[in-house]
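User: I'm putting together a small comparison set for a docking exercise, and I want a reference complex before I start. The sequence is below, and the ligand is DTB. Could you produce the 3D structure with the ligand included, as structure tokens?
Assistant: Of course. I'll restate your input first, then give the structure tokens for the complex.
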Amino acid sequence: MSTNPFSPVVPARSSAKPNSAAREALAAAAAWPLVAVEALFELPFNDLLHRAQQTHREHFDPNTIQLSTLLSIKTGGCSEDCAYCSQSSHYEAGLKAGKLLEVDEVVQAARAAKRAGAERFCMGAAWRGPHDRYMPALTQMVREVKALGLETCMTLGMLEPAQAQELHNAGLDYYNHNLDTDPEFYGKIITTRIYQDRLDTLRHVRDAGIKICCGGILGMGETRRHRAGLIAQLANLDPYPESVPINQLVPIEGTPLGDMPPLDPIEFVRTIAVARITMPRAMIRLSAGRQQMGDAAQALAFLAGANSIFYGDRLLTTDNAQTDEDNDLLCRLGMRTGSVAPKS
Ligand code: SAM
Ligand code: DTB
Ligand code: SF4
């Protein structure tokens, strides 16, 4: 074990050559034990932000932000019971369910996103997982959106290995599948699929050669320990996700979490900082909830190491921060938008 509670245990992929017992112990050890992640959360805010900003500068240009645009390609009528979601058929959120969009409609929206400055186009479907009969249309969407010169991302629920491979073969760059929260709190939010189902899908995606976008939601009534647990789960994926969306709950009337009070913005920013420190080369996306957050909290989140946002007036079924407000904020912060990659 490391003696510094703020440093990760030497991971199993270290170049050191321990004896076999030690090697086994190292392999069993998580890169970021929960106690080390909790210790980061406990730091004085200024110390935590300083450390996160240092990490951020080591790996990224601190003044460039990447823009991703979302499109709901199949809305509502979902069989799952995720307590935060407007699209679950278990709740009455007043949403009209739709069919899978035509490929042309998706490509038209992607073209508009590209014109507006997006680097990545993320297509989301309200499914437990895609039925095989939709795979030809989905792969066609990937091919055509990619041909526009955009990075492609899809979030379609659970994937079988063969489906992941088909999407990879079509050119899908990223697959978004969130852990949402830590394993202990998970059962309070979703009962129709288990944590291991999510980990299995992430493995299928990784094995197919697609990059992973995986994060969670804050403000669902979880404790700090649960937030630390979520970050530890993400940081201990081997390798950790290339993209980490951190959503603030958008409370939706009619869902079980519709009345949830907002999370303290300081705690939200702390979580971003801990994600940056524990996953130094990941894109950390300040995702849902920006409209409710205000400029000051967003500016702090960028200082804490967030370097991507969803850009465009809509998320999936709710309003996003409006693009003219985003342009104004980024201008006041002197931030550029464009392609972001970790320094080699
Ligand atoms: N059905 C697929 C799934 O669940 O994997 C893909 C779409 S689902 C809407 C994608 C993610 O959006 C969820 O995992 C959750 O993290 C996030 N999300 C959904 N509703 C939200 C809300 N009201 N507030 C914040 N994040 C939300
Ligand atoms: C993610 O982590 N957040 C996005 C994206 N991945 C698919 C979705 C946010 C949805 C917010 C609520 C809504 O608009 O329905
Ligand atoms: Fe369905 Fe995804 Fe919403 Fe859960 S988060 S209810 S799986 S659309």
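The radius of gyration is 19 Å. The beta strands are 64-74, 120-125, 151-155, 174-176, 211-213, 216-218, 243-248, 283-286, 308-310, 336-337.
User: Thanks, that's exactly what I needed.
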